[in-house]
Design a protein that fits this description.
With 605 residues, the protein is an alpha+beta fold. Among the domains are: 8-185, Immunoglobulin-like, CATH 2.60.40; 503-577, PDZ domain (Pdz3 Domain, Roll). 25% of the residues lie in helices and 26% in strands. The strands form seven sheets. The protein has a seven-stranded mixed β-sheet. A five-stranded mixed β-sheet has the order 16-17-18-20-19, with helices on one face. The longest helix has 19 residues, at 211-229. It is globular. The termini are far apart.
Length: 605
């Protein structure tokens, strides 16, 4: 009988917090006899950009039975070890100073890492079970471990205690790198949502954080989403890969962002957005934080389990192109604030205000006339994640416009079926067909051209024309007509009475700089460019953005003004013909005395 290869054993030690370096080792019992190839992922799922994490590996050495094994690099993120007859031991040093949700970060206060930044993948062995030994840092014995990875249960070995250092396990490499790890002394609280354990972990200096309030609010979101996808079983989806879900939040002065995983999420939040004990009202940014939580938790179903066929399985070493991110990110963006409403955390008026802001954002960019959300999805790797000063004129967001396509589909399905079906029907249908029978490698992904047929099968409504016009085409979603059916009117007004230059400003090194020149606006026609530093308007000095507004207040639309700028180190003057401010602010209002056929916010789902 052929002997089955043993587990892969990874060991991580945060042994140089001052230098921001992890020591990571990998033990392979039966390496490739022709020379084991090792690869580090080039990107991380959920963040569609090749990031070349391997550039942070400072040293990599291999040995077998105590003797060195030569290693040579064969491409940007791959190494090949010389043939050896016995077990292979690899040790590398990884620099970790990326304060984001995507990579790894280590200092004397905490350690955080995604497996895509630390764990080498051995070619041909990625299906083997993986053991992960987490070692404590040398400078303190106070740190704890927070991760959704299960503790290992090994014969004749004591399992790691909850939140303790020791041995953890994953069924394969794909699972290993989908459970980030936080180590340190964070503030933490746990709760149950339909019987499933959830942990909230906050790293950073956050005095008097109101953990109880946050836990109560997040519990409502989690319970609403679990019940949405599993109304009968109330079964959380991550129980197939973990025994808990972990929200890991790094708190800074101005942070914002999130990255989903199969049983956890890494978040960044601004300190001022979180509630503190004794505060009668939560800060204004708290709704934004809860929306982020809702967004990333919804991904537990939509993209981590229901996923494009192009991600089935992921290829971690090159771009994985799909035209469907408008479904997986756009639909999730539609449902994130919607679940705050369904969970009773915001009012209908607040929801309409948030939705109006999204509509305003989408309509501000001329790029929506040049790129569809399907094209934006495909080009995420080279355009959406590499934005520059011209991006508002050239690109459309598959997040924001994708959420409006989702809203339009929801309203269309409700009106076409007399409220018998909605986008909720479609999401549950997707879950039942592509998500519930979850393959860890995602073999049952949604084909690129299957969505419209799936909607027809689920609801009996043919949405091909709508999808072709608004997702694969560049037409605006007719929200004024669709929203009127549910008793909501769309209004447009001008956010400022000042005449317009047709540009966006930013403060850069204490100077007022042009960030973007909008297509066909006054600045564009006059020849002003992004990167120009504003010096004066009609001979009066511009000191900051507020002074620019004060100066513009002396003029009216159709006036000609001279704008002085520095372009690089050259002083230039441009004559600009001011325009009337455009109606760029969308406001949604309930229609008085309207009797809606159904509450599109989901009273009936």
């Amino acid at each position: 009988m052929k002997k089955k290869p043993a587990n892969l054993l990874y060991t991580v030690c945060p042994d140089d917090p001052g230098g921001h370096r992890f020591t990571v080792s990998l033990d392979i019992t039966t390496p490739d006899p022709d020379g084991q190839i090792l690869r580090l992922p080039a990107w991380i799922p959920g963040s569609y950009l090749v990031r070349d994490f391997a550039r942070q590996i400072e040293t990599l050495n291999a040995s077998s039975r105590g003797k060195p094994v030569p290693v040579r690099k064969i491409d940007n993120h791959s190494w090949q070890c010389a043939p050896c007859s016995g077990p292979l031991h690899i040790v590398c040093t990884v620099y970790a100073w990326d304060l984001s949700v995507r990579s790894a970060h280590l200092d004397e206060t905490h350690a955080f890492f995604n497996g895509t930044s630390l764990f080498l993948c051995p070619d041909g062995l990625s299906d083997l079970p993986c053991l992960l030994e987490l070692l404590p840092p040398p400078h303190t014995d106070q740190w704890k471990v927070y991760t959704s990875l299960p503790e290992a249960r090994l014969p004749r070995k004591k399992a790691a205690p909850r939140h303790g250092f020791g041995m953890y396990m994953a069924p394969d490499y794909d699972a290993l790198i989908d459970h980030p790890v936080e180590m340190g002394t964070p503030q933490a609280v746990s709760f149950l949502a339909h019987g499933a354990t959830h942990e909230l972990v906050f790293t950073g200096v956050i005095p008097n954080l109101d953990l109880e309030r946050i836990a109560a609010d997040v519990q409502k979101i989690c319970e609403a989403q679990i019940a949405f996808f599993e109304p009968e079983t109330l079964q959380a989806p991550f129980l197939d890969s973990s025994n808990r879900y972990v929200f890991m939040t790094l708190v800074t002065d101005d942070g914002y962002g999130g990255l989903e995983h199969r049983a956890s999420t890494a978040l960044m939040a601004a300190r001022s957005h979180l509630p503190v004990r004794g505060q009668p009202n939560a800060p204004e940014g708290y709704t934004q934080f809860l929306g982020l939580v809702s967004h990333e938790y919804f991904h537990t179903w939509n993209v981590k389990r229901i996923k494009p066929a192009a991600f089935a399985p992921y290829d971690f070493f090159r771009e994985n192109h799909t035209q469907l991110l408008w479904i997986f990110e756009g639909f999730t963006s539609y449902y994130d604030d919607l679940f705050l409403l369904r969970a009773g955390l915001i009012t209908r008026d607040t929801y309409l205000k948030l939705l109006g802001k999204v509509i305003s954002t989408v309509h501000l960019g001329a790029g929506r006339h040049k790129q569809s959300v399907a094209e934006s999805s495909f080009d995420a790797w080279t355009r959406y994640y590499k934005q520059d000063e011209n991006s508002p004129n050239a690109l459309v967001s598959y997040y924001t416009k994708g959420s409006l396509v989702a809203l339009g589909l929801d309203l269309l399905l409700r009106s076409s079926t007399n409220d018998a079906h909605s986008l909720d029907t479609v999401m549950r249908f997707l879950w039942n067909r592509y998500g519930r029978s979850f393959y860890p490698d995602g073999r049952n992904g949604l084909p690129e051209d299957a969505f419209c047929a799936l909607v027809l099968e689920a609801t009996g409504v043919d949405v091909t024309e709508f999808v072709n016009r608004h997702a694969y085409g560049r037409d605006d979603v007719p929200l004024d007509t669709l929203l009127a059916h549910v008793g909501v009117s769309v209004h447009w007004d001008t956010p400022s009475a000042l005449p317009s230059l047709g540009l966006k400003l930013r403060m850069q090194h204490g100077q007022t700089q042009i960030a973007t020149v909008y297509d066909n606006g006054p600045a564009h026609k006059a020849g002003l460019s992004a990167g120009d530093t504003l010096v004066a308007l009609q001979g009066l000095r511009v000191t900051d953005m507020a002074s620019m507004d004060r100066l513009l207040g002396a003029f009216k639309p159709n006036d000609d003004v001279v704008v002085h700028v520095f372009r690089r180190d050259e002083l230039r003057a441009f004559q600009v013909n001011l325009e009337a401010p455009a109606p760029t602010r969308c406001t949604l209002k309930p229609i008085a005395d309207h009797e809606p056929r159904a509450d599109h916010q989901g009273a009936r789902s």
